[in-house]
Design brief:
This protein is an all-beta fold. It contains two helices and 27 strands. Helix content is 3%, strand content 43%.
Amino acid sequence: MDSTFGPAGCGPYICVSESTARADAHFVALDPATGRARWRIPGVAEVEWSDAGRVVVFRMARRPVLEARDLRTGAAQWSFAVDRAVGHDVDLSGGWDFGALGDIMVGRIGPYQEGRGRLSSFGFFGVRLADGRLVWARPRLLRVYPGAAPAVALVARTVDGRNRYGGFEQLDPGTGRPTVRIPAPATPPTQWWVSFPADLSTIGFLSPGHQGTAYDLRRGTAVPARGRHTWSFCTVSPAPLKIAGQRTSYYPVAPLCAYDLATGRRAATAGAPPGWYTGAADGWRVWRDERGALHARHDARGTAPGMYG
């Protein structure tokens, strides 16, 4: 395959981008029984959703688009340019996310700093899976990390026209409307990280070694930090992990640790990280800890997206 982003299931087929580092890169739907190509399209694309008869892909072109294709023939059914939702100068170096919520595809385009503090266009939006029609758009909102996939729980931070951080909002992924707003002064005066409990009922602002603050995500009101355990990154300055017997090292997916929000210290008995972080595939949850060890646990139902997809 030369170079690829890796395969993904799309209905009865396997879909994959081939030769991604070359000028003749293409996206192909393969018959898993024979390996033969059923259809292909030029360029690099990623599967974002599929059912038995249709696949929605994100095509990473000069003007990136979401596109629905007939799985049998590859014929285009609808196409939506994401710059219509967030702005004309999208730069995919800032990252992207997509996830389906019922009949709505929720998308996020991240910002990329292009020099002198200027940010490329960014924000969230929702389109209809049936026809690609734009349902809602919220430009200039940043995704909050760590946190659930946008189609599970959409918590974002506002950025004004001068690129200054503002408060936090939880949005209804189906409509884009804010369900709760939390002002920027809610954060602690010391260094802090965002954190969430396993049930996503609150947002915590974790201050390492100090008492943090927490807000109810249903009412937007402050709640006590005492007795509250939340999950956040184990470190914001990760070091590469060594591979035994090799000179090389690697950075795994950023692991989460449990904290006592009242003290800012690690919780003594953490257990497995929450489902909104790991996601699930046929009931299996898989994650790496901060030492790089791989864990798997069959304790969920069905398939659900995690923090990274």
